[in-house]
Design a protein that fits this description.
heterodimer; A: alpha/beta; Rossmann fold; seven-stranded parallel beta sheet; 17% strand; B: alpha+beta; Uridine Diphospho-n-acetylenolpyruvylglucosamine Reductase, domain 3; Alpha-Beta Plaits; eight-stranded antiparallel beta sheet; five-stranded antiparallel beta sheet; 14 helices; 21 strands; 25% strand; globular
């Protein structure tokens, strides 16, 4: 039976994704900064889906711990899914370097650090899958998502490069770009219902796309076209807009 | 973010926040905030019980913590809904000890309302099967409640409409089953008198409930169908079903698409509905084996069936009268029939004995009816309240959106003790709902 590693397992999308893969028979490895919180998620997954579920401490910012973290995983996961990320108020981040750096380090540097390690393992083994959760916010830089968007843009570029690098070794790399999602991160925001997905919808779409070995998916699909329009607005016009 | 909040009756609708938590420390942080709050599950009570300007939704706190397949003890967080529990326990040969007519309620809500089912006369309400639960007070302190530990809080929480604290974890006993099927018997009663006799004749059945056409007058007044059931044993199943006796029912659902305009539900449609339901049972008695799903949850198949009542919503009126108050039952049903305000779901059930502080069930007849909200309804229901109280009855808070504080006070002799327990454990009065404010349960703001 195959095993899935969920990095960022305490997030709403992390839990939903773990449950989705577990319901399809995969064993689950839950990794998060505060592993003690995951006891209930573990028992829930084991009882509902009758698969094995283990808990692992993982801190995205402790880059030098990542190799040992991956080394200790037994068995090694067949699929590594990176879900962790963080978002601060952009105005706060703009005024406070620590917050800016935190967003860059969690959303980009931390992901690159752990996925480099997973990719190395998979390319040597000549099989494996990597799924990275980026964001539509990375498709074009704009004021309201200044730092968050640029960290996700970097991540999107990294995942595309990784896909290219690993292709010859039969390693599947998938980029997931959610639009609005109802999570604890966005609970206080008035999101347009028609454009917003639930964590369960994200998880289902990720699973279906994984099965079909997709390269890049937007969640939901129409975000591809929304972003296509946004990307095609000429810069001389775009820079004057409030987005 | 403020949004419109309503429960199943879509009445009342209020502006409020709905905050969620996935982990216990997140709940702590929500409780630390200054604004008052009430816990909220899946919003399947009918009135204003889980409504407030600030609600704490338990829906993401929905993890299963343990399930002992040998002895049927189940432990979970409070936000899990009964349909999710059934999906896990039925294939292992266990069933909910008590279930209401919908499986889309949370276990926390089940305790807060101390729900009853078709087996109340045999198994009591859900509180009878609860081993222990954790309750988080307004101070943030978490208390393990059981019959022996904080018995006053234990009792006041079961049926206490969330006013003692946020139930966070529940451990309860399940019921052993051999199959996922129900051996069902449907008996036609030509009037209320016959129905009451039939209830008595069949009182040994584990499950019993009656559907009444309450608009029928004259000799046929109270014509009804008595629905009886037992969990089927392997031997009750035909060869096809025997192959997979604990099979889960399929979950095909239909969504009721739009709010109907109110006038659709006039007298005629009510009569037509009742006639159809009645006419289906052309024989005096029907015996068959069905999946548990249509037996317990016939309306769950139609998602959002509450939209049938239109935008203005509806009020469900459920009362219980003592066994010796048959006259009261007849009087109330006559009043409803005369008024013609329409109620095509009239459900009658006989409760067994129950002693509790604030739970609704007590020995007697309980009748539940829906009324679409329209002019004159609230006045009419106030009149019904008077009859209920005259016969020493009371109303179910989980269905309530409109009763007066005096009505509650008269119906629940231990109400003052309940209020004092709320005050003892939550002296700041931070835990409150639209209902508790209306019913003066939680003091002034």
């Amino acid at each position: 039976m195959e095993t899935v590693l969920i990095l960022g397992a305490t997030s709403d999308i992390g839990i939903a994704t773990a449950k989705k893969f577990a319901s399809s028979g995969y064993n689950i490895q839950l990794a998060a900064r505060k592993p003690a919180e995951l006891d209930a998620v573990k028992s829930d997954i084991e009882i509902r889906y009758k698969v094995d579920c283990t808990i692992h401490a993982f801190d995205a910012l402790q880059f030098h711990s990542h190799a040992a973290f991956f080394e200790r995983l037994n068995p090694k996961p067949d699929i590594t899914i990176s879900i962790f990320g963080t978002m601060y108020e952009e105005d706060d981040a703009f005024n406070e370097w620590d917050l800016t750096q935190m967003m860059i380090d969690v959303n980009y540097t931390g992901v690159v650090s752990i996925l480099n390690i997973a990719a190395k393992y998979y390319t040597e083994r000549k099989t494996g899958s990597i799924i990275g959760i980026s964001s539509v916010a990375g498709d074009r830089g704009r004021a309201s998502k200044l730092i968050y968007g640029s960290s996700k843009a970097a991540l999107t570029a990294y995942l595309a490069g990784l896909r290219n690098k690993c292709f010859k070794d039969n390693v599947h790399v998938m980029t997931v770009k959610p639009g609005f999602v109802y999570t604890r991160m966005t609970e206080h925001l008035p999101l347009p219902k028609a454009l917003t997905s639930t964590p369960n919808e994200v998880a289902s779409l990720v699973y279906d796309a994984y099965v079909k070995r997709k390269n890049t998916i937007y969640v939901k699909w129409f975000w591809r076209y929304i972003m296509l329009i946004i990307k095609n607005i000429p810069e001389f016009q775009f820079k004057k807009m409030k987005l | 973010m403020n949004k419109k909040l309503a429960n199943w009756g879509n009445y009342p609708v209020i502006e409020g926040d709905e905050e969620t938590f996935v982990f216990a420390d997140q709940l702590d942080r929500l409780i630390e905030k200054e604004q008052p709050y009430i816990a909220r599950g899946n919003g399947r009570c009918y009135g204003d019980a889980s409504l407030a300007e600030r609600t704490i939704s338990t829906l993401k706190f929905d993890k299963i913590l343990s399930f002992n397949i040998a002895d049927g003890v189940f432990e979970c967080q409070s936000g899990i809904t009964l349909d999710q529990i059934l999906a896990v326990i039925v294939p292992e040969g266990w069933f909910l000890p008590v279930t209401p007519g919908t499986k889309f309620i949370t276990i926390g809500g089940a305790l807060g309302s101390d729900v009853h089912g078709k087996n109340h006369h045999v198994d009591g309400s859900i509180s009878n099967h609860v081993i222990e639960f954790d309750l988080v007070l307004e101070s943030g302190e978490m208390i393990l409640c059981s019959a022996d530990n904080y018995p006053d809080l234990f009792e006041a929480t079961l049926g206490g409409m969330g006013l003692t604290g946020v139930i966070s974890r529940v451990k309860f006993r399940l019921k052993k089953i051999e199959t996922s099927y129900i051996k069902q018997k449907q008996v036609k009663a030509k009037n209320l008198q016959e129905l009451i006799t039939l209830f008595d004749t069949y009182k040994d059945y584990t499950y019993s409930v009656a559907w009444i056409d309450c608009l029928k007058k004259g000799d046929g007044f109270g014509r009804s169908i008595l629905l009886l059931g037992e969990h089927a044993t392997i031997n009750d199943l035909d060869e096809g079903k025997k192959a997979d006796p604990l099979k889960m029912p399929g979950n095909k659902q239909i969504t009721f698409p739009i709010n109907m305009p109110w006038w659709v539900l006039n007298k005629l449609t009510v009569k037509a509905f009742n006639f159809l339901y009645y006419g289906k049972n052309f024989k005096k008695e029907i015996n068959n084996v069905v999946s548990y799903e249509p037996f317990f949850y016939p309306l769950d198949k139609i998602l959002h069936w509450n939209r049938l009542y239109g935008k203005k919503g509806f009020v469900q009126y459920q009362f219980v009268l003592p066994l010796d108050a048959k006259d009261g039952l007849i009087e109330i049903m006559h009043r409803i029939s005369d008024e013609g305000l329409g109620s095509f779901l009239a459900v009658l059930k006989v409760f067994g004995k129950q002693e509790s502080m604030i739970s609704f069930p007590k020995e007697g007849y309980t009748l539940a009816l829906d009324f679409p909200v329209r002019n004159g309804l609230l006045e009419f229901l106030d009149e019904l309240d008077k009859i209920v109280l005259k016969y020493n009855g009371r109303l179910y808070m989980s269905k309530d959106a409109r009763m007066k504080p005096e009505t509650l006070q008269s119906g629940y002799p231990e109400l003052d003790r309940f209020k004092s327990i709320i005050k003892k454990y939550n002296p700041q009065g931070k835990i409150r709902s639209a209902q508790s404010d209306r019913l003066l349960l939680t003091g002034t703001k």
